[in-house]
Amino acid sequence: LKYFGSSVVPEQKLYWPVFFESIMLTRCLRRFHRTTNTSVSHQLKESPVRFLCQPIRTRYAPSPTGFMHLGGLRTALYNYLIAKKSGGSFVLRIEDTDQARLVKESMQDIIDTLNWAGIKYDEGPDISGPYPPYKQSDRLDIYKQHVDQLLESGDAYKCFCSEERLQALKASYSKKGFSGSFYDRYCLNLAPEKVQKNLDEGKPYVIRHKVPKGITIVNDGLKGEIEFKNAFIPDQVIMKSDGYPTYHLANVVDDHLMEITHVIRGDEWLPSSPKHNLLYASFGWEPPTWVHLPLLLSPEGQKLSKRHGDISIRSYINKKYLPESVVNYLAMLGWGPVDSNKEIFTMEELLKEFGTEGLNPSSSRIDQDKLDWLNGVHIKKLIDSNPAKYVSSLRTALEEHIDQYNKEIWDPKVLEDEYLRSVGKNIQVVLC
């Protein structure tokens, strides 16, 4: 009872440790209730055994549409730290349902970047796990089965509207001062004969989720309770005409089947949360714990994008930044220890000290000078703790640099151990 009594402090500010513990205790009690209440268990269409208390499972589920940037790596890092500190599992899942925007090298870049940063996932597309496959384009049959389930229950319907009609509808709403995506449910009540006629003629269609009337409450770990009016949530497309699911359906189905307990993602996904909660309700599933992290901003205060090469992790790798430095820097962009002003962390120290109570609800701006300073600190630590590794790393960086220019102008002694050790005494940033 002490958890429920103190889960909210004055001014509705959430105290993180208590909030998470109360959530987990509530989940356990609710799941126990389902195992002992036949009507509730039947209503939720679930096997009671599944709802017993379970360890935290988080996931990082990027779309391979570009090279990983700082915001993506921070999301992966926070998911990893929260899962591992609790003794849980961290999952890598590739969400490649947007076939038109795929970048060929992107998935390998994601895997290589996580390995470079020391973020070790327990399950993923290259190592498998208990809930394969971990690439959404390999799970199309699973999504079709669940869409068929929604069609059968009346929670979804086929929509034959042409792109021309949808564009005209959008223009009509725009003239009335509405922005965003709206749909007038033209196909919701089509007569069965009309639906069959369209199918017989081979008319393309999508499948939409039928949004019920009322309101949807999203309980967010960082922002508290947020209310959304369903009247402003359109009947979203959950299956495209090419047979691929949209992000919303695939995301919900996969998180449930892979038993993800905590979804920790960027603020840009908060508007999607009511859509996801509604899908969970239609399937009779319990949603995970939502945590939406404030965005990382550019030095100018703009949202970071993976299309900006200057903030891609690959650019930092190419400039020979230490992974320890980048991980330390990203951990501090949105988090800090509550009982100290400590700024220097190794991954091992983060695994011990990282806690949800230190998360900051405000957005953070990228500070290149701070990253450079941290990089110098970690280089000095490397020199002191493992001089042989430092010498090897610096020599490799120099050799790659020298190869780009005329080797004859370089003094051979710059690659000797003694010289490299002397350089290390004064170095502040890695030589590019």
Give a short summary of the structure.
This protein is of the alpha/beta class. The chain is built from 16 helices and 13 strands.
Question: What do you see in this structure?
Answer:
- By secondary structure, this protein is of the alpha/beta class.
- 42% of the residues lie in helices and 11% in strands.
- The protein has 16 helices and 13 strands.
- It has helices at residues 2-5, 16-36, 38-43, 70-85, 106-117, 140-153, 163-175, 192-200, 247-257, 273-283, 313-318, 323-332, 347-353, 368-385, 387-402, 417-424, and strands at residues 8-9, 13-14, 57-60, 89-92, 156-159, 206-209, 215-220, 224-229, 237-239, 262-266, 289-293, 296-297, 364-365.
- Strands 5-6-9 form a three-stranded antiparallel β-sheet. The chain has a two-stranded antiparallel ribbon with strand order 1-2. The chain has a two-stranded parallel ribbon with strand order 3-4.
- Helix 12 crosses helix 14 (368-385) and helix 14 packs across helix 15.
- The longest helix has 21 residues, at 16-36.
- It is elongated.
- The protein starts with a helix and ends in an 8-residue tail after the last helix.
- Residues 1-19, 30-52 and 428-432 have low confidence and may be disordered.
